[in-house]
Amino acid sequence: MGELEQTESLKILIRNETQKLTANFLNTCGTTMVAIGVLTPTINAILTDPGTLSPLAILGFFSFGIILHLWGRAFLADMEEAP
To answer: Where are the transmembrane segments (predicted)?
Structure first.
């Protein structure tokens, strides 16, 4: 394997790792959105006043969390095959 091929191979591996880290970051942000915007208000409403629960806000946070997760998966789908 020549030096040029090794350099290209290394670039692909670095790019793939960057893609994985970005996907992981987006997935973590999505999980956080669901935890903050869905679980916390739901538990609060169960333990205190059910009237404080806002279904529209919960739907918004849940949807945004799912969108972030799917965006992260899109980064993984864009990975290149390493030689």
So the answer is: 21-47, 53-71
Separation CA 11–CA 25 (nearest Å): 21
Q: How many domains does the chain have?
A: 1
- Supply the range of the domain harboring residue 65: 21-77
User: Helices (DSSP H) in 35-54: which residue ranges?
Assistant: 40-47
pTM of the entire predicted model = 0.84
57 in Cβ contact with 38 (< 8 Å): no
Q: What is the mean pLDDT of each run of 10 residues along the chain (83 residues)?
A: 83 94 97 94 91 92 96 90 74
Residue 1 is assigned to a structural domain of this protein: no
